[in-house]
Amino acid sequence: MGIRIYKKSDQASGSFNNGEILEKKPIGFPNDGGELKPYSNIFYWAHAWTTHEKSTIGLHPHRGFEICSFVLKGKINHYDTQQNKWIPLEQGDVQVIRSGSGISHSEEICDSSEIFQIWFDPDLSKTLTKEASYNDYKSTEFPVSSTKNKVVKNIIGNNSPVEIFSEGVSVNEHLFGTGDHLIDINEGYIHSIFLIDGKVSFDGFKYSSGTFFKVQDEKDFKVIVLEKAKFFEVISPEKPSYSTYF
Predict the structure, then answer these.
(1) Please, which contacts does 162-166 make with residues 24 or more away whose CB atoms are closer than 8 Å?
(2) Pairing relationship of beta strands 75-80 and 42-50 according to DSSP bridges
(3) Are the CB atoms for 3 and 215 separated by under 8 Å?
(4) In this predicted model, what pLDDT tens digit does every residue of 170-216 receive, in sequence order?
């Protein structure tokens, strides 16, 4: 399979509140359009931001899936029917909703703020009977390792405090200085890599923020960083041991 590349133009688009919140979706819902459909145990992946001072996505339900929100920039506020109050989340924070037998929530995205919302499939035949649960994790809780030209933050897996039921999922954030860099690729896994910031060169072509790379059956993913770059990486099994929803 190797390395597949999806520019912004290849991704599905979405919006809320008459364009107050905009989205690009590397992995959209099956009817969203865009080149990529759900794979592994990743059902949905949206990059959302607001064009206004703030805008709210109204109360809506979830069941079964694990809904993970990653605050990339700025601040959001979150409400759900389990906590029954609004909770602020800032850049680098993570919110996990294990929606189980059912929960409803609402999100408010503030000015100059961006998030990823990713839905993982934790084997719905089991989670649909579980009571919903919810956790917030602050940016300072995640283990970080660094070298002279590279910083890696472990957001899920590798001694991170985040707990999810979805099988074999790890999430990392890579901050690279200019120069040559590589990300190791695990055999039997898919590495889904989103370029959040910066510019890179891969295989002789230049790519900017918003580009999505799907990597598998490779030993590593090598890029030349032209401008300081931040990558967001989700590692998930090629073939989960259970049947996924899609």
Answers:
(1) 162/94, 162/96, 162/135, 162/137, 163/96, 163/135, 164/66, 164/68, 164/96, 164/98, 164/120, 164/122, 165/66, 165/98, 165/122, 165/123, 165/126, 165/127, 166/41, 166/66, 166/120, 166/121, 166/122, 166/236
(2) unpaired
(3) yes
(4) 999 999 999 999 999 999 999 999 999 999 999 999 999 999 999 99
Cα dist. 133→85, 119, 161, 196, 244 in Å? Answer: 15, 15, 15, 29, 21
Residue (of 218, 221, 135, 137) closest to 176 by Cα position: 221
Q: 0.85 cut: is pTM over it?
A: yes
The single-letter code of the amino acid at 101 is S
Residue 32 bridge partners (DSSP)? none
**Number of other residues whose CB lies within 10 A of the CB of residue 74:** 18
Tokens read off for 161: 């405090």
